[in-house]
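2024-03-11 09:14:02 DEBUG pipeline.ingest accepted 1 chain
2024-03-11 09:14:02 DEBUG pipeline.ingest length=236
2024-03-11 09:14:03 DEBUG pipeline.predict start
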Amino acid sequence: MNFLSLIVAKSADWYAQWVQLNTWLQSLYDNFVGNATTSITSRTPGSGSFQFDLLPATREYPLNAVIRAVSRGDSTHYIQGYITASAAGSATLTATAWNGGSAKTDWDIGPVLILSRSPRGTVAKSSAYQLVDGDRDKFFVVSNTNQQTMPLVAGLPDGWSVGFRHDGSGTTTIARHASETSTSGYIDGAASLALTDGQSVELMKSGTVWKITSSHGLGITLAQTQAQAIGLILAL
């Protein structure tokens, strides 16, 4: 076996071990939290907020936990999101991912193990857009000159993250929400941030402001370096 073949073989072994470890961790997490929740609440996958009555009625999820509801009869129908309201026997989530277009009443519900805080799901934008709470963890690839406006920080959980990259000519301006006052909603000390071709940034809500947790092509200050370190610690 030559050196290249050895590397390929070892890479396959490492990947298989990683998949096995990830599966084991998911199982461990599910069992620790108690992944034995169902719901017969009629819901149609889509954007927005969804309340589920849970069985057993003693089940309660922590706020901001990420859960996934999957139809037992048709696993292509699912709703995934983070908990915004919780009580014994009830959970309300804001959807961040979903699939399927018909109402289901046979939901299996369980926590989702998040191993990374990096944005997931790419969205192309070529014009101005106002972000909403359902855009959590998305990665916006923006073209042309336009403004992407952040949601109000009030009401969003700490750790709420989103990413942006500008491709092509023009400039993407990432601005705080128009209703923010004083320094609320500031992006690392400023009311807006500009991206040009090839530049990217990930922002995370921390208190009443947005912190840069990672970036490419931007000049990084000491404060931003510290923010990136905090973001890395939170992701572990």
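2024-03-11 09:14:41 DEBUG pipeline.report The CA atoms of residues 34 and 110 lie 8 Å apart.
2024-03-11 09:14:41 DEBUG pipeline.predict end
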